[in-house]
């Protein structure tokens, strides 16, 4: 939807589709605020991370996280 679900609690992940052509994955923090994890341009499939997000691999044996669209 275009806004946080009404029953959202800390840790809930949801997709914001309020911007045409963009899907934005957000997570609700402990204060009930939305934190953007990343956005996907649905035309180009480009993924954009907010400047506040960084990716660090702490365990090289960990199973990679992936999202498949389509």
* Rg (CA only): 13 Å
Q: Stretches where pLDDT falls below 50 for ≥5 residues?
A: none
User: Shape from CA axes?
Assistant: globular
Strand order of the largest sheet: 1-2-3-4
Describe the structure.
There is one protein chain. With 70 residues, this protein is an all-beta fold. Helices cover 0% and strands 30% of the residues. The chain has no helices and four strands. It has strands at 13-16, 22-28, 34-41, 47-48. It has a four-stranded antiparallel sheet, with no helix packed on it. Strand 1 (13-16) and strand 2 form a beta hairpin. It is globular, with a radius of gyration of 13 Å. The two termini are 19 Å apart.
How would you describe this structure in keywords?
30% strand; 70 residues; four-stranded antiparallel β-sheet; mainly beta; globular; 0% helix
Topology record:
Elements: E1 13-16, E2 22-28, E3 34-41, E4 47-48
Antiparallel strand pairs: 1-2, 2-3, 3-4
Question: Nutshell version of this structure?
Answer:
This protein is mainly beta and 70 residues long. It is built from no helices and four strands.
């Amino acid at each position: 939807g275009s806004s946080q679900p009404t029953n959202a609690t800390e840790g809930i992940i949801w997709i914001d589709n309020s911007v045409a052509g963009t899907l934005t994955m957000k997570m609700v923090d402990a204060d009930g605020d939305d934190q953007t994890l990343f956005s996907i341009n649905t035309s180009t499939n480009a993924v954009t991370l907010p400047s506040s997000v960084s990716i660090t691999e702490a365990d090289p044996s960990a199973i990679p996280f992936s999202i498949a669209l389509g």
